[in-house]
Amino acid sequence: MKRQKLFKIARFTALLAGGLFALSAVAITVSGLNDNIHQSDVAVILGNHVAPSGRPSPRLQARLDRAVELYHQGIFQNAIVSGGIDANGTDEAAAMKRYLVDRGLPSSKIVVDSGGNNTYLTAQNTSKIMTDRQWHSAIVISEYFHIPRTKAILQRMGVTKVYAAHAKFFEIRDVYSIAREVFGYASYLLRS
Description:
The protein is an alpha/beta fold. It has helices spanning 2-33, 58-72, 92-102, 119-133, 147-156, 174-191; strands at 42-46, 78-82, 110-113, 137-142, 161-166. 36% of the residues are buried.
């Protein structure tokens, strides 16, 4: 009898956890796909893998292409490209800047943040850059599943006007990325 009761409690707990996970995944997906595009002082483009040749991965290229599109629509005039430096010495942010300049964004309007090794550091660095330059609004450009947590961290860092546009890029790996983001967002909330 006691064993059956424990089994029922374990099953209920597993179903509850699974339900909360699924609900969180749906909320992150819907929120990230719901673009909130407004005129902003700066676009914040988050980094991703860059080949040793300097060529952005397809995922990063989609982020950069979205930024180019919004720049030419007049949504922003300044950009912060944020990424890390990998083990081979490839600087994501520098490669991102080259890509944007090659597509018509003025070099002088792009700030390179090579210390954006993760979302938290990108937000921290962005907040400082924006304060130093007296920018008050930002539009985040990344994958849809990455946007809700990025916006939340930027707001926690004092950036009060945060808008978003997702990259037009989808792949089967997004299933893994959404799951990872559920845990990432939960971890961020617990630390906060």
